[in-house]
Amino acid sequence: MAASDAALMAVASGLAQWNLDAQYHGTSGSATTARDGGFSRTCSSSGRSIYPRIDPAVITLVTGGSDWCLLGRKHEWPRGRYSTLAGFLELGESLEQALAREVLEESGVEVSLPSIRYVASQPWPFPRSLMVGFYAAAAAQDTLHCSSSSSSSNGGGPVELLSHQGRMAMMDSGIKPAEVAAVLTDSRYLQPPIPQEGEMEDVRWFHRDWLAWALQQGPEAAPGGFMIPGEYSLAYRLITGWLQRQQQQQQQQQQQQQQQSLQEALQERAPAPGLASSSSGEGGWLGNQVPEVAVDEGVFKYVLLRLTDSSSGRSKLLVRGAAAAAYHNHILQHTKAQLQKLCPQGSLQLDVLGGGRIEHYAEQGVISVYGYSAAFGPAVHEVTAALLRRWYPFYAADSITCSYEGY
């Protein structure tokens, strides 16, 4: 259905319901007569006109840092459907107060009032709502929420976030402290959502990379049939608008990195072949098409990798694990072959940052990361576990653990 037809049908539905409910005046009880094509009714005894009531409601995408957003689902919704949090205003409330109250009631998460930003509104005459859309940031949690069995709970830099074995692996594997910090600190201040009884069936944080991937897959292929409201809804606009803004920020960072790389190359020598032609283009960085995590079920070897675009300097961490791989190097070579198909010019390159083993039991929602690679040494398993938590949002955070024991 076209957007214009859907809007017309929504208005007609709302008016039909109101005219059905307002056949008698609410005070006098006298019969009313439709006027102005059903947009008003006139009381037969007093001659006064009455109009459809509009119930304002807030609808909010709550974000945590720059990478996470809070979505929930109600019991009666179709399987896999998640959306932004919403609710009606109470008497005497401002829009901002209603937003903070509804988010707290539905999820147990407190929002930062100064962060609230109006985005757009949408009439929703089912039967008579006006949805007012906002972005809001969750208030940062002061305590570290760390579910790894071997992670340190101390504050500070990336080294303090790791166990002793993790620190040794960081020094030996070649992973950068900034990479460790980016992965381990992006969720450490997220308030754990608690669905409130009678409000929501489930509320949880979703990482933007997983969310973009799941929406691209569609409900037929996404885990649990994951989906969000349709494209005509304000919830869809809030979610996809946030994702697009994050991608734009990434592209701006990429352009700055590319310009810096070109300037450095020009200062030393003529640009190397392929340096001036990025593998990103207008459609975005090719690396965005490479999922951060791809692992099997069962018990298998895994490697932690750094994907780098030599033409732009952009990079991301990958976790790859395969039950059929006899050696860690087999996983590396298979991943290289996949990248070669995606980017034949070869600007996407891989660095190995260690490895280990993974036990993944999907039915129980449990993942254990442990051991080491004889060829590449141990990866920083805390980083691997954190990436897995991003990619398996329906697993309990404390069901994804890591250890440096075993092989």
Write the layout of secondary structure elements.
Layout: H1 3-21, E1 32-35, E2 40-43, E3 49-50, E4 55-64, E5 68-73, E6 85-88, H2 95-107, E7 117-124, E8 129-137, H3 164-173, H4 177-185, E9 202-207, H5 208-217, H6 234-268, E10 293-294, E11 298-309, E12 315-322, H7 328-342, E13 348-361, E14 366-370, H8 381-391, E15 400-402
Parallel strand pairs: 4-8, 10-12, 14-15
Antiparallel strand pairs: 1-2, 2-3, 4-5, 4-6, 5-9, 7-8, 11-12, 11-13, 13-14
Give me some keywords for this one.
407 residues, 8 helices, 6-stranded mixed β-sheet, Pyruvoyl-Dependent Histidine Decarboxylase, Chain B, Nucleoside Triphosphate Pyrophosphohydrolase, alpha+beta, single chain, 3 domains
Which class do the helix and strand fractions yield? alpha+beta
- CATH architect. name of the largest domain: Alpha-Beta Complex
Identify the overall geometry. Answer: elongated
- The tally of domains stands at 3
CATH 4th-level superfamily of the largest domain: Nucleoside Triphosphate Pyrophosphohydrolase
Let me know the average pLDDT.
Answer: 87
Count of individual helical segments: 8
Helix percentage: 25-40%
Taken in chain order, the helices and strands follow as: HEEEEEEHEEHHEHHEEEHEEHE
Strand content: 15-25%
pLDDT < 50 stretches: 143-154, 270-283
CATH topology of the largest domain: Nucleoside Triphosphate Pyrophosphohydrolase
CATH class of the largest domain: Alpha Beta
